[in-house]
């Protein structure tokens, strides 16, 4: 008999993601899910028809590893239209299997054992595991207070000779904060004379409110020369399950990213790429998104004003944070569980976005839902 085999985990602190846990719990108890960041309304029928068309046309084999050229050309055109910069679609644009795969490929491309990577918590849950799998060390800085601004002085102090990479996210998940021009100026001043790489996670680039512009790193020559810029068609086109994203980076960085990308997934679903290449020719498909989601944000905030939650600012993304610190001393994970089981509304505890589970008694609500879903959820939350 073989001896018992044990695995020395590379990620001993990682368990099943909170998104899986809360979504499963919501299904088990029949709760309304405002937890995982996935719309419950349909994506464009035209886009679905386009995918079906290209599948029937026989585009069902491997796409090029770097992505369909027609799609990369449209991504470059969209980037120029939105941000005044046209990346080279051949050498500077890569289609990825969702932004998460692109993030992993970018981190793996540049982070070596012993390197330090600065991240801002709360942060998307894939950042730190990817850093640690590469042998890097995540240097975690907390965003400031309830505004969730970057602590610029702390960032300056955190940079050492071992700092290899900095990761930013705007609009920000889970907080809904955004970077504005003064922030970009601060970032440029800090990085311009360094050899630090930058990942700019911009998957919610078109979900930004109150007339604010999205300050993509693509706008900034001094920053984009060191940057991997990530975006996601799943977020833009209400189709998170398709897992199609892209990365814009200078040719030398793209070359290294593709070395990793080709051995992670090789390529991304072919017919979907053809469909997106055609659909992107209509700028209104993404330019109307801020108004669409602002209407949902405003309606959700108006309804939530009737509950006892205290809402925090939300300038972008489709997430709204709510504090219950004045209602309960329960830990946020326990409170979210009780909310799901007793009141029938599933949320995400924000402590899940901190490696050490920092608990400020704040929950994340996703408002990318049908109006009737939001209305029913708020009716239940009003009972608290």
Automatic annotation (TrEMBL):
Residue spans crossing the bilayer:
none
| Keywords assigned by UniProt, alphabetized | Aminotransferase, Pyridoxal phosphate, Transferase
Aminotransferase class I/classII large domain: residues covered:
32-381
Record's Pfam families? Aminotran_1_2
Q: Which NCBIfam families match?
A: PRK09082.1, PRK12414.1
- Superkingdom classification of source: Bacteria
* N-terminal signal peptide: none
- InterPro entries attached to this UniProt entry: Aminotransferase_I/II_large (IPR004839), Kynurenine-oxoglutarate_AT (IPR051326), PyrdxlP-dep_Trfase (IPR015424), PyrdxlP-dep_Trfase_major (IPR015421), PyrdxlP-dep_Trfase_small (IPR015422)
Query: Which Gene3D superfamilies would you find in this protein's record?
Result: Aspartate Aminotransferase, domain 1 (3.90.1150.10), Type I PLP-dependent aspartate aminotransferase-like (Major domain) (3.40.640.10)
Q: Which cofactor does it need?
A: pyridoxal 5'-phosphate
* Name of the protein in question: Methionine aminotransferase
Q: Name one GO molecular function term.
A: transaminase activity
Which CDD domains does this entry report, sorted A to Z?
A: AAT_like
């Amino acid at each position: 008999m073989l001896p018992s085999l044990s695995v020395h985990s590379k990620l001993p602190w990682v368990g099943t993601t909170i998104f899986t846990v809360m979504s499963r719990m919501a299904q088990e108890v029949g709760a309304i899910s405002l937890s995982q960041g996935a719309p419950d309304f349909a994506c464009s029928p035209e886009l679905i028809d386009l995918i079906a068309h290209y599948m029937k046309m026989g585009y069902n084999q491997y796409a090029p590893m770097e992505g369909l050229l027609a799609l990369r050309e449209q991504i470059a055109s969209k980037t120029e239209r939105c941000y005044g910069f046209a990346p080279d679609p051949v050498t500077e644009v890569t289609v990825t299997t969702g932004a998460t795969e692109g993030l992993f490929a970018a981190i793996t491309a540049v982070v070596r054992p012993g390197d330090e990577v600065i991240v801002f918590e709360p942060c998307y849950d894939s950042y730190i595991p990817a850093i640690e799998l590469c042998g890097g060390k995540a240097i975690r800085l907390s965003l400031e207070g309830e505004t969730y601004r970057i602590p610029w002085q702390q960032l300056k102090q955190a940079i050492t000779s071992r700092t290899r990479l900095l990761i930013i996210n705007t609009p920000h998940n889970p907080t809904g904060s955004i970077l504005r021009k003064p922030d970009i100026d601060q970032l440029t001043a800090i990085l311009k004379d360094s050899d630090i790489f930058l990942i700019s996670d911009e998957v919610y680039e078109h979900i930004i409110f109150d007339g604010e512009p999205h300050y993509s790193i693509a706008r900034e020559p001094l920053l984009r020369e060191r940057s991997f810029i990530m975006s996601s068609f799943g977020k833009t086109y209400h189709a998170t399950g398709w897992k199609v994203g892209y990365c814009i980076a200078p040719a030398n960085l793209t070359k290294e990213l593709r070395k990793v990308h080709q051995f992670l997934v090789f390529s991304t679903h072919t017919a979907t790429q053809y469909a997106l290449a055609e659909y992107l020719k209509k700028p209104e498909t993404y330019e109307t998104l801020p108004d669409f989601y602002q209407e949902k944000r405003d309606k959700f905030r108006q309804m939530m004003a009737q509950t006892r939650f205290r809402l925090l600012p939300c300038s972008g993304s489709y997430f709204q944070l709510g504090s219950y610190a004045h209602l309960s001393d329960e830990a946020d994970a326990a409170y979210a569980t009780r909310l799901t089981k007793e009141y029938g509304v599933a949320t995400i505890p924000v402590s899940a976005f901190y490696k050490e589970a920092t608990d400020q008694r704040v929950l994340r609500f996703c408002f990318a839902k049908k109006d009737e879903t939001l209305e029913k959820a708020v009716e239940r939350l009003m009972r608290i």
